[in-house]
Here is the input.
Amino acid sequence: MKLKEITDFLESLAPISYQEAYDNSGLQIGNPEMIVEKVLICLDITEQIIDEALENNCNLIISHHPIIFKGLKKITGTNYVERVVQKAIKYDVALYAIHTNLDNVLDNGVNQRLAQKLGLENINILDPKKNQLSKLIFYSPKNDVETILGALFKEGAGEIGSYKKCSYQNTGIGTFMPQDTANPRIGRRNVLSKIEETRAEVLIQNHQIQSLVEILKNEHPYEEVAYEIIELKNPNQDIGTGIIGKLPEEMSEKSFLNYLKEKLHLDTIKYTPLSKKIATVALVGGSGSNWLGLAKEKGADAFVSSDFKYHHFFDAESNILIADIGHYESEIHTIDLLSEIIQRQFPKFAVLLTKTNTNPIKYFK
Ligand SMILES: [Zn+2]
Here is the structure.
């Protein structure tokens, strides 16, 4: 299989445009046209991971964390990032990262999977992402509008939450006068036409703009298609950081901590005490301390994440239980998630899960 077949599929689920501004997801090393024999899936890429890939004849490594995060000004092997890059290029191993774009999708996302592991119900995105949505408005003869909308719906326009094919239409009078160089389907050159037209509006995602406008132009009967794209301030409720949801039943502090330990196979949890019962839980896989305020604002009784600094714990103020479960521990399930996603789409393709524990932190007990 060609590398780009896999990456195109992954990006149809988690488009690169969903990633955070600081991130660097996507293909980092490799030619999109190369033939992939076997893929190794991991959380982090280390030299040991490259060796594991080579031993198992995997010429593609898909990781959650990008190995190239900042610009590389030289590749001389002075640190592990440079050595990984050198080795991957030397042995023709492609490296692909699917990071905050996979965190930020509700469906098949890292945080959705974490919420499922905790059995959370009625889940929603904790911090829905803004600047992702636009409205596409177009005008067409009344009889053509259903065909055009049908083609746009097929490509994902008009989807809001659990609803598909959402649109709004009204009819009015459109006017136009074709000039000497025009080839109008309706009307004649230099004569003013007045036609009953429908104005249709659909919600679209910004990353779809180009392809949907192309579809609109192909399906529309007019030589010049009148359309507008308006950027919306509405957040996208299906895209963003973290999850908030309800536990299957209320729990005391102690039973919640035990529940976390059991469900996520944890050794240790750093936490802040809470005397009230826990019903609503917010979570952010990876470094999520910046979302503590929002978790409190949205009424979470507990916030599960990692990488809290000493002073962050004070912000719990005895009205939320912060559970710092460890960065690696909060995201390790991403490996299973990615393997399931890929195998569902390409059942015959060889997918290997890493056996290497790349967590750089060990606990001495
Ligand atoms: Zn992470």
Q: What stands out?
A: The radius of gyration is 25 Å. The domain at 3-99 is CATH 3.40.1390.30 (Udp-n-acetylmuramoylalanyl-d-glutamate--2,6- Diaminopimelate Ligase; Chain: A, domain 1). The chain has a mean pLDDT of 96. The chain has three domains: 3-99, 110-127+240-329, 133-234.
